[in-house]
């Protein structure tokens, strides 16, 4: 899976990162979901959250053991999206929130397998 273009990175606190993502219409993330009305699939949002948390928060390669996500708004192509990630190491829990402007598109938590 190709990661999105990262426009800005903020690190407001330890274990936390806020990324601004650009989602061009030609991104492979939109392929086939849905023809004529593309949206960013939920599975892509989860994959990006885990992979970007690994990159920016140094989680190591971990798999999801459990997750709970609420999708509130579709994310269409040509969106500028803010992804906030917050890792609670003691609980192995990654909090995530995708926003378009001031509206929450999706939010939730992912429990990750124990690290090495």
What labels would you give this structure?
116 residues; mainly beta; 1 helix; 6 strands; 46% strand; Thiol Ester Dehydrase, Chain A
* Binned strand content: over 45%
Q: And the CATH topology?
A: Thiol Ester Dehydrase, Chain A
The N- to C-terminal Cα distance equals 24 Å
Element pattern in H and E:
EEHEEEE
| Uncertain regions spanning at least 5 consecutive residues | none
Please outline the helices and strands.
Layout: E1 5-13, E2 16-23, H1 42-57, E3 64-71, E4 79-88, E5 93-100, E6 103-112
Antiparallel strand pairs: 1-2, 2-4, 3-6, 4-5, 5-6
Description:
Strands 1-2-4-5-6-3 form a six-stranded antiparallel sheet, with helices on one face. It starts with a strand and ends with a strand. The chain is built from one helix and six strands. The chain is mainly beta and 116 residues long. It has one helix spanning 42-57; strands at 5-13, 16-23, 64-71, 79-88, 93-100, 103-112.
Summarize the entry for a quick read.
This protein is mostly beta strands and 116 residues long. The chain has one helix at 42-57, and strands spanning 5-13, 16-23, 64-71, 79-88, 93-100, 103-112. It has one domain: Hotdog Thioesterase (Thiol Ester Dehydrase, Chain A), CATH 3.10.129.10.
């Amino acid at each position: 899976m190709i990661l999105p273009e990262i426009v800005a990175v903020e690190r407001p606190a330890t274990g936390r990162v806020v990324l601004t993502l650009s989602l061009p219409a030609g991104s492979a993330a939109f392929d086939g979901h849905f023809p004529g009305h593309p949206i960013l699939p939920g599975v892509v949002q989860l994959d990006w959250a885990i992979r970007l948390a690994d990159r920016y928060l140094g989680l190591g390669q971990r798999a999801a053991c459990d997750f709970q996500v609420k999708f509130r708004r579709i994310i269409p192509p040509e969106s500028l999206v803010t992804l906030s990630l917050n890792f609670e190491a003691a609980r192995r829990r990654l909090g995530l929130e995708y926003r378009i402007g001031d509206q929450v598109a999706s939010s939730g938590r992912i429990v990750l397998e124990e690290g090495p």
